[in-house]
Specification:
Radius of gyration: 20 Å
Keywords: Periplasm, Signal
CATH class of the largest domain: Alpha Beta
Shape: globular
Structural class: alpha/beta
Pfam family, one: DctP
GO cellular component, one term: periplasmic space
Strand content: 15-25%
Subcellular location: Periplasm
Number of domains: 2
CATH topology of the largest domain: D-Maltodextrin-Binding Protein, domain 2
Number of helices: 13
CATH superfamily of the largest domain: Bacterial extracellular solute-binding protein, family 7
Strand order of the largest sheet: 2-1-3-10-4
CATH architecture of the largest domain: 3-Layer(aba) Sandwich
Number of strands: 11
Protein name: TRAP dicarboxylate transporter subunit DctP
Length: 335
């Protein structure tokens, strides 16, 4: 049975979920169908795999480009049963999901894309507090989509920490504002979608980002210097489900979903690395983007800055309150 969904955010948020035994589930996403990046391509891969692994008995219908719920509405839409599956930009909801935003409080950190995803998988398996935080909002994490390892894309060359003083740098979340101020720069809060224009108009001089994402948003048309600053991979998206949908699935279908979540991380990391390599090759050629090594010691020295430490301490306090073994988790997030 296919769900009938009325497109349009206001009307959609009033709908109730159909039976969890439906043969066709729904996936709501902010990603445009034609994006062509690793996130969009592997989302389609997951949907195709779900149908194949259930021998065509079950399907997932994709609703692209925020047609059902905008980025900021997806957690509530999933919780209310408007969609069965969806991708949540976790850093946009730090107050609702502080534990699941652990990596976002520890920038810079030493892990890459796959390592961050595997850490999230392990934390969810070993520490029930991570899942309980989502379950309290009628959500279930069936998979994880970290972002790539970040550096800094700038309009002018940056050779070391001194070159960042006075720069205006795009910022978001908790760790980046403190880190940017520790650099002697000014954090400027701007959405991903607005950053191209901000770079073009010199509203910002730099933005933290990775090569694949920079190419996807075409920032590299404006900013021609990629500073290979070891910021580590940011945690990006939960592949989330309506908890009632997940619990209402038969045991065999739940097993397919669980395995798909683990397999998705591996496939996504593989595709993302291919994209990253392709972009770096483009930069060396026709795009003309210069990659500049940044002294690692210049960055890691900033971790001791009181403002940076205050952000980390904020997460530690929340984790201790939740009863988590803080030292074990934090040890993975420190150089």
């Amino acid at each position: 049975m296919t769900r009938q969904i009325l497109l349009g955010a206001v009307a959609v948020l009033g709908l109730t979920a159909a039976s969890a035994s439906a043969e066709t589930f729904t996936w709501i996403t902010f990603k445009p169908q034609g994006a062509g990046d690793a996130q969009a391509r592997t989302t389609q891969w997951l949907v195709d795999e779900f149908e194949a692994r259930t021998d065509g008995e079950h399907q997932i219908e994709l609703f692209w480009g925020g047609s059902v719920a905008a980025t900021g509405e997806i957690p509530e839409a999933l919780a209310n049963g408007v969609g069965d599956f969806g991708d949540i930009i976790t850093p946009y909801f730090p107050d609702a999901m502080p534990l699941n935003n652990a990596v976002g409080f520890f920038i810079p950190q030493p892990m890459g894309t796959l390592e961050v995803g595997e850490a999230m998988e392990r934390w969810h398996e070993e520490y029930p507090q991570f899942s309980e935080e989502l379950e309290s909002q009628n959500l279930h994490a069936m998979g994880f989509r970290p972002l790539e390892t970040y550096g800094m894309l700038c309009r002018e060359p940056v050779e070391g920490i001194g070159d960042l003083e006075g720069k205006r740098i795009r910022s978001y979340g908790f760790a980046y504002p403190a880190l940017i101020e520790a650099m002697g720069a000014t954090p400027v809060s701007i959405t991903t979608a607005d950053t191209y224009e901000a770079l073009e108009r010199s509203v910002v001089d730099c933005t933290p980002i990775g090569p694949a994402l920079a190419r996807g948003w075409k920032y590299d048309e404006i900013a021609k210097y990629y500073i290979d600053m070891p910021l580590g991979a940011s945690f990006g998206h939960l592949l989330a489900m309506n908890l009632d949908t997940y619990q209402g699935m038969d045991e065999e279908t739940r097993a397919v979903v669980d395995q798909l979540g683990a397999d998705y991380l591996q496939e996504y990391a593989r595709v993302l690395e291919e994209d990253r390599a392709r972009v770096l090759e483009l930069w060396q050629g026709e795009m003309g983007v210069e990659v500049i090594d940044f002294p690692e010691e210049d960055l890691t020295a900033l971790v001791d800055d009181p403002q940076v430490q205050a952000v980390r301490d904020e997460w530690i306090a929340k984790a201790e309150e939740a009863g988590l073994p803080v030292d074990e988790i934090v040890s993975e997030l420190q150089f």
